Amino acid sequence: MSDMTLTHTAQADVADLSYPTMRQIMRHQAAQFELPLAEDGAARVAMRTMIGLLALEPLDREGVRLLVHAETARDLSILRENFISQIAAMFPDVARGVRWSDAPAAGVRPSEFQFAEVLEVRDLCADFLRVSLQLAQWETFDDGSIHFRFALPAPDNTDPDWPVMMPNGASKWPEGEKALHRPVYTIRALDRSTGRVDVDIFRHEGGRTMTWAESVAPGTRVALTGPNSSGVPTARHLLMLGDETAFPAMARIAETLPPEARIEMTCLTHSGQQDYPMAPRPGTIPHWIAPEEAEEAGRSMIARHLERPGSMLWIAAERDLTRRLRAHAAEKGYVKSDHYLAAFWTRSETAG
Question: Are 84 and 162 in a shared domain?
């Protein structure tokens, strides 16, 4: 992404924030999320993201100027909201008073929110259902953004409320009994000519999305937000390890990468089933492992990644396992720009 393409911009002047404090916060977030700082000085600090740029500048008088730069209006809206969320975590009263130069309309739906229609639900394999949806807006769903969030009301909530934009550019989501369940899922397949998408849902005990999918009828309207920013990597040598929650993303990646790309794929199965339909590609044979083998398999994969310059490490699984593997990779001196290690679920969750 070139700065020349970031043609959508917005700014907000906030008198009640300190530039030195906010600069330190941005530097911390860049380190925490492994995002590069494009600038870091007394007059400006700027952090690159996958969809644009967040920046801070001191005002001549007291205060800070917030700036966001993006390629599209939708991405600009997402970055604005990210900025507000960061500020609200520490200075909620200040966050509520922020007003942007492009003045997002209060009360409208967030730009990434939409309703889709359920077309079909069928058994895919022993551990998965496939839900086919008709999107109303699918132009932004591409190989660079393959994840989204459902927005599901509780089963007894027959009159749900939906999110709206607030004057400060943040989304207001219903709370309490009206709160929506918002799990992340992968677009396994997308027909770009029609907007039909397939979503594969893992069968697991206590899963609210699975319960919804097992009972939903074709023609039902379902809310979702997205796409999220993570997508198909561009590496020519990819080392992948994931459990059932990552299988759809692994299959989408394997299907999308060009034939010359080399993929090593390790699939962690808790049930012992090995029938999820990974996308076939020459030279790539999924290696199936049990949970007790996962950590050693991950360490071995990290070692192979470090031995092969130009390769990319891709691991997505349960949070504690991912944390241990990330710590191990850091000890071994991995290159942060050549990896994706993500927690797709936690053991405390029972309603994915």
Answer: no
Distances from the Cα of 186 to the Cα of 151, 250, 251, angstroms: 14, 10, 10
Please report how the helices 73-90 and 19-32 are oriented relative to each other, as an axis angle in degrees rounded to 10.
110
CA end-to-end distance (rounded Å), the chain: 33
144 shares a domain with 212: yes
pTM: 0.88
Q: What is the pLDDT of residues 84-140, one digit of tens each?
A: 999 999 999 999 999 999 877 888 999 899 999 999 999 999 999 999 999 999 988
- Helix (H) or strand (E) holding 54, with range, is strand 52-58
Residue 21 lies in a domain: yes
Q: Which of 79, 12, 86 is nearest to 49 (CA)?
A: 79
Taking the C-alpha atoms of residue 49 and residue 79, their distance in angstroms, rounded to an integer, is 9
**Dist CA 163 CA 172 (whole Å):** 5
Strands 184-186 vs 147-151: parallel, antiparallel or unpaired: antiparallel
Instruction: Judge whether 232 lies within some domain.
Output: no
- CA distance readout (Å), 24 to 19, 56, 164, 245: 9, 11, 31, 35
276 — phi, psi (to 5°)?
A: -65, 130
